Structure formats: C-alpha cells, structure tokens
Amino acid sequence: MTVKVLVVxxxxxNLLGEREPQIYGSASLEDINAALDGLxxxxxxxxxxxxxxxxxVLIDAIHEARHWADAILINPGAFTHYSLALRDALAAVGLxxxxxxxxxxxxxxxxxxxxxxxxxxxxxxxxFGVDSYSLGLRAAVSYVRRAKxxxxx
Length: 153
Fold this sequence. Notes:
With 153 residues, the protein is α/β, with parallel strands linked by helices. It is 40% helix and 18% strand. α4 (84-93) links the parallel β3 and β4.
C-alpha cells in the first residue's frame, strides 16, 4: 500500500544551508527533499512537497491534502510557536501530523520551546538535524500503515 504524504516546510527553510549553519546544519532544502524522495521510494510512499514563507500558501496546501494525502509531515518553522491558523488547518483536515525540527526546540530560547502544533500532532521529532525529517517520514508512514491495518475487518 502506497502511503501519500504532504511534506510542509515553513518560513525561512528555503535558506537552509546558508542560514545559521551552526544551528540548522549545512544541508540545503533541496538536499533534504532529495533525501526524502529517496526514502519515500524505499518506503513505498508518495510525497508532495511545499515550502512557503507565507502562512496562507501553507494553509491552502494543507486544505488540498485532505483530498489525497494519508498524513502530513511538517516543519512549521517559526509558525510553530504562534500560528493558530496553521494549527487549526492541520486539525481541520483530520490527517495524522508528524511535526519535525532540525534543532532541539526545547533546548533553545524560551519562546521556541512551545509548539501550538504539538497538541494536535501524533508526534514531534526534533534535534536530529536532517535525520529529523527521515525519522518523521518513517514515523508517518508507519503510523498510517498501522492505523489502516487495525481498521481492516
């Protein structure tokens, strides 16, 4: 069974590889997406990937996902800490959400330690750099497969 996953990259993630490499590493967003595409093939998963610095674009992509996706893998970037609109969009579509972050947001500045997304996510993975994404994709695919197997009569 192919699992369909929307991958959402939030604001400023288009600058990965250039932006604060001591925190976020040297991999570019293109590197991360290529690694996810390779892993998706191994896992028999289909990805659609979106990055935007605009909240409404991300919300529109999430709304669209309700028609085709089985799960959402999201790095909300700074929207993690305050975007109730993004949180509400994720909750509204009713898909399992896995939240990922390159850095350990719980070990950073106080304002970064709270996620408005985490309470509606099935899980959060942070602090493993680029591996946070691959761990998140594995978790999302596994979660969907487990749920679909339990739903079978």
